[in-house]
Design goal:
The chain is built from 9 helices and 5 strands, in the order H-E-H-E-E-H-E-H-E-H-H-H-H-H. It has helices at residues 10-16, 33-37, 68-80, 91-96, 127-142, 148-154, 156-166, 176-196, 200-207; strands at 20-22, 49-51, 59-62, 86-90, 118-120. Helix 2 (33-37) links the parallel strand 1 (20-22) and strand 2. Bound molecules: iron/sulfur cluster.
């Protein structure tokens, strides 16, 4: 069986020039979207336009910090989007937790839960930086450099495991059988870790550090 590859060349050019962005904003970075979308920066000149539902969208922007509650909706929305699909993480909150790095209910690194194609540095990134990331995304899609949805599918157990470490994935995953199995495995592991844990806070932090990104 041949390995799936990201589209490139004319197919990639067409794909990159007609991105439909899911209208789903999290965190304070969302406030940079209106100027990016309207006449001053006018993102539609790149063929990027907002879309209300995940089933017709191919670009997911995570515009800031993500609570565990919101992560559930993000995973659900990401899984509903058709392939090929792309993810951009805005600001330091998606890179390492940002100013919420020590919060009990936000995640620290977005790419441990869903694949991220591009990050935009800053707190918060300005519209110029967002436009820059769009042009980089368009260029990268044409060259076949972005393949997050393939990585997600190939490493689904890794992502599901990390998701199960912070939330109940059974109600939020499209593949319910896989979610049920991984959820049970993680619960077993948790029980063992709880038996060993002596300082609950340290245990809680250690539990949230997954084992590294898939190659
Ligand atoms: S990176 Fe800064 S602007 Fe963006 S969500 Fe975090 S705190 Fe808000």
């Amino acid at each position: 069986m041949t390995k799936e590859k990201a589209p490139k060349g004319i197919k990639g050019w067409a794909q990159g020039r007609s991105l439909w962005m899911l209208h789903f904003c999290t965190g304070c970075g969302a406030i940079e979207m209106p100027p990016t979308m309207t006449s001053r920066y006018d993102m539609e000149r790149f063929g990027i336009t907002p879309m209300a539902t995940p089933r017709q969208a191919d670009l997911l922007l995570i515009t800031g910090y993500l609570t565990v509650k919101t992560l559930k909706r993000v995973v659900r929305s990401y899984e509903q989007m058709p392939d090929p699909k792309y993810v951009i993480g805005f600001g330091s909150c998606t890179v390492n937790g940002g100013m919420y790095w020590d919060s009990y209910n936000t995640i620290k690194r977005l790419d441990l839960y869903i694949p991220v194609d591009l990050y935009i540095a800053g707190c918060m990134p300005r519209p110029e930086a967002i436009i820059d990331s769009f042009t980089e995304l368009i260029k990268g899609i044409k060259e076949g450099r972005f393949d997050g949805w393939i990585r997600y599918r190939e490493n689904i157990e890794f992502y599901k495991r990390n998701q199960a470490m912070v939330m109940d994935i059974r109600k939020w995953s499209l593949d319910t059988e896989l979610a049920e199995r991984i959820w049970n495995e993680v619960q077993e592991e948790r029980k063992k870790r709880f038996e060993r844990a002596t300082v609950p806070h340290v245990y809680e932090l250690a539990e949230r550090i997954p084992e590294g990104l898939p190659k």
